[in-house]
Design a protein that fits this description.
Blueprint (H helix, E strand, L loop, with lengths): L1 H13 L1 H41 L2 E5 H5 L10 E2 H8 L5 E16 L2 E11 L19 E5 H7 L5 E8 L5 E12 L4 H6 E5 H8 L5 E2 L1 E6 L6 H10 L5 E5 L6 H36 L2 H9 L4 H37 L1 E2 L14 E2 L5 H20 L2 H6 L2 H6 L1
Parallel strand pairs: 4-8, 5-7
Antiparallel strand pairs: 1-10, 1-11, 2-9, 3-4, 3-6, 3-10, 5-8, 6-7, 12-13
Helix pairs in contact: 1-11, 2-9, 2-11, 2-12, 9-12, 11-12
Length: 401
């Protein structure tokens, strides 16, 4: 066996051109597969992040009445988020609970009314991974508006902004907040119509007690394995008249994205399959060109099994080095793409969805390993196609030719 492996290794370097062309085909297929899958992951990962941050969580809890009138953002029907926290204490998979209040409000700077906006209230210490406000410190008594909104209305750091809205009891109330930081986002409707404030300030403005929120978003370790936590939490809160929604059961954008991810996974598998066919085809063509060589080996006394092992080892070695080169190129392209990004701002200008217009390919060892194994396994599979051919070769006929 060792002798056959060494012979195979020497055979590879006997015809440099054929070896380089075969290895290059494998390299291109592996690199394209790795980068393509990384690009697809980079396209959808931030969208899922934005949607779960802004809208759905992994589990969403509201009241029945709020669900019915959600478009109006009612503030007179709320969830006791501290009761949700107590119910979640014994559920290990739950990692984060975010109480939120969303409400319609008029925004004014001094005596000048600015606009009708959506107030988005939160507890900042629980929103550190919130993509839109990353790096921004929101304190009680402060408000955060977008850079675009601030520029449009002449709002500077330190300016006082007044929010006026209807309380949970139906009377008008207002609160003065200071704009100390601005957020940047390319998602138009958030930049134009959303202001962020501390949950305590919203509760004061809306005349709500300190344990109340219009919705509670619950997060688990893995969004795709969050169903058991949802079922446990629903059981723990069964005495409450809350409406609980698991993201998979929601007919929301995230559900549509899940379908899109499934479709893109199928596309990735098609790319994988086509790349595998290309590798197999390249290897088989290379092996079929060597029938005379096979005849000579059999004439020298090598049995069909030994001849096949030589071809198998050659395919394995070429597949390994071609796949390794493809892995390094795909990995390098992904790392560069992850730093530079692919800007689709112009194409997405009119898209009113929480989609980041700059796509950064996601580096994943799972994708890298899959691409490498694809090249290696496809190369090895190609050697199977010559087994029958090797057995049929008649050394006498080959040598006469």
């Amino acid at each position: 066996m060792k002798f056959l492996f060494i012979l195979s290794f020497k055979n590879i370097f006997r015809n440099h051109r054929r070896t380089i062309l075969t290895a290059t085909g494998i390299m291109i297929a592996v690199a394209a597969t790795i980068f393509g899958k990384s690009f697809i992951d980079g396209e959808f990962a931030p969208v899922v992040q934005n949607v779960t941050d802004m809208q759905t969580g992994h589990i969403r809890i509201v009241t029945e009445k709020y669900r019915e009138k959600e478009r109006l953002m009612p503030v007179n029907t709320t969830v006791d988020y501290k009761a949700v926290e107590s119910a979640a204490e014994g559920i290990d998979d739950i990692t984060l609970i975010r109480p939120r209040i969303k409400f319609g409000t008029l925004v004014a700077k001094g005596d000048e009314e600015v606009d009708g906006m959506m107030g988005f209230a939160m507890l900042p210490e629980r929103e550190k991974s919130f993509a839109i406000l990353k790096g921004i410190t929101l304190r009680k008594g402060e408000i955060v508006v977008s850079e675009k909104f601030a520029s449009k209305h002449g709002i500077n750091v330190g300016d006082t902004i007044v929010l006026i809205t209807q309380t949970a009891y139906g009377y008008l109330n207002g609160i003065s907040l200071v704009a100390n930081e601005f957020f940047a986002t390319s998602i138009e409707y958030i930049a134009d119509y959303t202001v962020f404030l501390h949950l305590d300030d919203a509760q004061e403005l809306l005349a709500l007690s300190d344990n109340r929120a219009s919705e509670v978003l619950v997060y688990t370790r893995d969004i795709y394995k969050s169903k058991p936590a949802y079922l446990k939490l629903r059981e723990a809160l069964k005495d409450k008249s809350y409406y609980m929604l698991h993201w998979e059961d929601d007919s929301s954008m995230l559900q549509a994205l899940k379908s899109a991810v499934s479709i893109m996974f199928i596309v990735a598998m098609v790319i994988f399959f086509l790349a595998s066919i290309a590798i197999v085809n390249t290897m088989v063509m290379s092996l079929y060109e060597r029938m005379k060589e096979i005849g000579m080996m059999k004439a020298m006394g090598l049995k069909s099994g030994s001849v096949y092992r030589i071809f198998f080892f050659e395919a394995l070695i070429i597949g390994f080095f071609g796949s390794l080169a493809g892995l390094l190129i795909g990995l390098g392209a992904t790392i560069i793409g992850a730093k530079v990004g692919f800007d689709y701002s112009a194409a997405m200008k009119s898209v009113e969805l929480p989609i980041t217009p700059i796509i950064y390919p996601v580096l994943s060892w799972g994708t890298n390993i899959m691409g490498f194994l694809m090249g290696l396994i496809s190369a090895v599979i190609s050697s199977f196609f010559v087994i029958g051919r090797i057995r049929k070769v008649n050394p006498a006929e080959i040598l006469r030719e």
